[in-house]
Amino acid sequence: MTNSDISDVFSLLSKLMDIHDENSFKSKSYATAAFQIDRLPKELSELPRTDIASQKGVGESVAKKIIELLDTGELSQLNELIEKTPEGILDLLKIKGIGPKKISTIWKELGVESPGELLYACNENRLVNYKGFGAKSQQSIKEALEFYFSNQERYLYAAIAPIAKQLDQFFKRLFSVDWVFITGAFRRQCDIIDELEFLILSPVEMILEALSANEHFSLEREEDDVLHFKFQGCIYITIYSCDEENLPQLLFFTSGTAEFNDAFDTQFPDIDYNNEATGDDQFFEAAGIQFIAPCLREDASVIELAKAHAIPDLIQVSDIKGIIHNHSTWSDGLFSIEEMAKACIEKGYEYLVMSDHSVTSFYANGLSVDRIRQQQEEIDRLNDKLYPFKIFKSIECDILGDGRLDYEDAVLASFDLVITSIHQNLKMTEEKAMMRLMGAITNPYTRILGHPTGRLLLSRKEYPIDHAKIIDACKEHHVVIEINANPRRLDLDWRWIRYAVKQGVMLSINPDAHSIDGIDDVGYGVFSAQKGMMTAKNNLSSLSLQEFEIFLKSKKIN
Ligand SMILES: [Zn+2]
Ligand SMILES: [Zn+2]
Fold first, then answer.
1. pLDDT at 363 over 80
2. How many helices (H) and strands (E) does the chain have?
3. In the CATH scheme, what is the homologous superfamily, with its name and number, of domain 155-307?
4. pTM of the model
5. Residue 465 confidence (pLDDT)
6. What's the CA gap between 359 and 372, in Å, rounded?
């Protein structure tokens, strides 16, 4: 059981206590414990039991519960509360923006017991009559519910990738290494995956027989040579059965989107798909066009580029030379600057850009002007020690409500580069969002615009912006646009990366790492960048140390 699992248990315990109107002092202390446990540097399960109570934010009574959890895998107090709570109310807790107090009212006063009922109640305008709800909060609950329903059983690429790999190996053991292919949205490196699709060279009957013995697979539907399973009750798996003759063709048509496939089929009607091809790359050869990587088979436009042999060499993970946008223990990161730097050296990177939070992000321990000075002294010392590796002084500066930045110019001038991001008051109109972003882009100190839309895939919608206008303004003001590589963000979206590349705007694949593991998130950013048809030349973090230093000097601030 990881700290993150333990934190989830305390968070749920606290929320359920609130819903059932239990001791609010205690529920608050469990919420605090949940927050702290998630941030502990060491796994509680690996500590001697006697040391648990002395961990930050834990204490005696929470420690007792942690030990119960570690020993038995459950918490009796939580079990009792879950027992008393309808399942639909537990589902409501998973929806962002509806807190336990509101759920308590919804349940006890409106008699609503599930997300579906609640959406219905919103549509009937029933919430507005209750204490603590107005037309506005009813509307935002309604939107949160619609978002919840549209995201059921969908997964982040990063969350499903380990399962996809395990299943791939499992199928290869069951059938044969050369007979199993992963296809569909996963092969296209989409950021959200609704189902995992496999192509298996085997008759339907054999696939059915092989999987019928496995309790984790339940057959949902069977149509001709396509089998639809649910894996472990929650993940949709589609298996296409094929023979040697139609394998390349099926691999081709299950990899591309319908739009791509239709366009290809219409433009090259004479291709003989059964003509002894061994892989789907041969169809591009047969069509006389450039090979189109699976990740690009999204729409028809790429075919035109392939005809003109104009698809560039896509950026690779090995093209990343520096790790830009990172957090340390100075703000909300888990490791010291030195530990982050050493991890980068070990991974073969040439430089690290430390961008802790600015002062307005108080919840993330944002840096005061005094602490900035101390941090910069520490970086100077480390640069002497770690030479020729280099750490750059940066900040992830909050864009305030009126578009100003979080420090005076003199402070901003002390950084090697400033990344500007919006973190607070994310609920805003397009007009307001544009005003804030334009304020940051036109500020001469902004070198990189961080996570431009603030979206969290599957849980928080982006604030509305005029993408083209923002990208054009970044070009005009020589601002680099971040591709935040955290798999939950992937912001800028790949569809707009294509536009930015076309406009000649520089982008930067940044991990926004809050830990050493987080550094590797650059890989997800590269997947997005490939979909956006980016080359290493379009990417700031692909500059060598020497080139990066020249870049830093390239923008004159008057
Ligand atoms: Zn941020
Ligand atoms: Zn950040």
1. no
2. 24, 14
3. Beta Polymerase, domain 2 (3.30.460.10)
4. 0.81
5. 98
6. 10
